[in-house]
């Protein structure tokens, strides 16, 4: 599950527990609810930091064990499809959130967990442990359409996208920085979150209009907004 806490102008969304933070239906519902709360409580100068408890995982992706526990291949496929569909609004909520967003990764981010991190404006991760990994090619699973579009939208280098999606590359912090996937790498989980707080406070201090910020963000990723069904809003300039 996840918790939501507000400290000053910063919202902290935390995946809880010491496990690998799989994106089960219950966790996805909790994320949607929390992001809705963040959006409703946003003020000028807010920022979101998303992180996770423990020192091993940010999120290991969809709950494949739950899908496979059905005992039937067809039901397992239906369950996986259910998670893919239900996670799409989480991506849409992050793109629409009226404030800067930062993912602070204390450990591994794989598959859907990698995508979850990638949908934030900024990503900070550890350099001492933890990897980014899109496991679909190794598991024999095709990418959902919005995963592919998110990768094209968020990872600028063609070779980096190839290595991530076709090569199943496991990418550590410093290498992720060099590839332009994350913004900075830090020597521990604690220092990663501390750096995220400093960045969040710096961004919040600008006191941007959140509605305008969200529309500018959506304008940066038109293809992704299209597949998510996010429409642009007309905002009258305040001159």
Written account of the structure:
The chain has 239 residues and is an alpha/beta fold. The chain has one domain: 2-enoyl-CoA Hydratase, Chain A, domain 1 (Alpha-Beta Complex), CATH 3.90.226. 49% of the residues lie in helices and 16% in strands. It has eleven helices and nine strands. The chain has a six-stranded mixed beta sheet, sandwiched between helices. A three-stranded parallel beta sheet has the order 4-6-8. Strand 1 (2-7) and strand 2 form a beta hairpin. It is globular and about 60 Å long. The protein starts with a strand and ends in an 11-residue tail after the last helix. The model has no long low-confidence stretch (mean pLDDT 94).
Topology overview:
Layout: E1 2-7, E2 10-15, H1 25-41, E3 47-52, E4 57-59, H2 64-68, H3 73-96, E5 101-105, E6 108-110, H4 112-118, E7 122-126, E8 132-133, H5 136-139, H6 145-154, H7 158-166, H8 173-178, E9 184-186, H9 189-204, H10 210-220, H11 222-228
Parallel strand pairs: 2-3, 3-5, 4-6, 5-7, 6-8, 7-9
Antiparallel strand pairs: 1-2
